[in-house]
Here is the input.
Amino acid sequence: MRCRPCQWRVHAVVRANVVRTASTDAAIACARASRRRFVAELADFVRFASVSAQPARAPDVTRCAQWLVAHLRGLGMECVRLTPTAGHPVVSANWLHSPDAPTLLIYGHYDVQPAAPERAWSSPPFAPSVRGGYLYGRGASDDKGQMFAHVKALESWLRTAGALPLNVRCLFEGEEETGSTHLGEFMREHPHDVAADVAVVSDSWVLAADRPAIVESLRGALGVEVELRGEAHDLHAGNFGGALYNPLQALSELLAGLHDRHGRIAIDGMYDRVREQTPQVRAYMARFGPTDAGMLETAGASHGWGEEGYSLYERTTIRPALILTGITGGYTGPGAKAVLPARAIARLDLRLVPDQDPHQVERLVMSHIRRNVPQGMRVAMRTTMRAHPFTMSRDAPGVGAALAAYRKGYGAAPVFLRLGGTVPIAHMLGCRGVPVVMMGYALPDDAMHAPDERFCLAGYFRGIETSIHFMSMLAATRAGAGAGAGAGAGAGANARARAAVFPEALP
Here is the structure.
């Protein structure tokens, strides 16, 4: 007789799983039947020139946020709100009607990178077009298409079941491409908007159309602008050339000294806190990550470059990098203008790895530049971005559900992938105790941040279905715990899911 209550709970869980499976199937059927409309709505979303880095585009960013608010309300989300910040607005929404289910936070960003040079695009960047199974347009892949896959998954659930299988909060920001400058302040002022058991972020790529991946590591970032000034104004190149130090030349020489001949960053202390990866980790990366040849092909490059002793994949994920992203000075217009420029500006993008801290690296970089400024030059520096690296434990809550969801949505087992990009929210949520699962739907050759950015529509549809499965699987983890799994059931489920996906031992 003592077993009967337990049996009732088990039977209740079985019945709940049957109902959940039927509801999942109905949501997926709805998503498949709505594909044409889902593509048209994504194109409407991409049409907004929501470039957060350009002040002239601020009205477009706000209009995009307003469109997103209306769209979320239309599909049945609740408490939909546009919250102004000192920069661009944050869009939030929720659906909280499952007291016995976990709460999922869905994060995405609706801002995009500048489209310059627009002449390099095959079609206008903010006039999205479908060609060859891809939707082309700035932000189609990073991140509008990927975040919209979750939005369409929510809609598919609500239109078929009239409810979601778990509680959901949405947080969509408009400043990710500029370092999420005001997101931390928003989170401090609105902590309830990020209160969740698990967060899912889809702002990354999979290895191939049939090779899904969960991202377990991201690099941090530090942006620094360096300006060298010489004389008070431009001077005649004939009258003063060869007699005065040219700020553009001085800056070029300074920048050339930032790396040594082995490809390492030549700044004292830069590698003091770099975490050295074990041979097991590097072997796993070599087995499941992209090859040098594959990365060169994706980039359209013939030769690699960088720190000796590491593969291209390792150089972009587990090693820090210093990238010169822009340099200006002198005359760059049509024709010729013989001047010795009064100033020159460079923009540096540093990518950081665990356990580097952007504030500490900022001090190292600025100290190095000040020590090496050529005589006669005045220097001014400005930090444009700081973001911490991110690492995920493979035992984190939600990982088991993500592994199972990818197998359902893609028909293939995912691998764990390290990426060299930066997503500031991942570290921010980790500091608040919210575990983050990175589930990407983009492809390596989607041309993120480049001309002709695109999003594979097959990946979009798979992403929607994977998100539907993920919500169902995540809801089921709480149901399983209620049947007697007890504390630690999430870690045990993750271990079992990993064992099914990867029979071999993992580092």
Summary: The two ends are 45 Å apart (CA to CA). Residues 1-16, 480-491, 496-507 have pLDDT under 50 and may be disordered. The CA atoms of residues 219 and 389 lie 5 Å apart. The first strand starts at residue 78 and ends at 83.
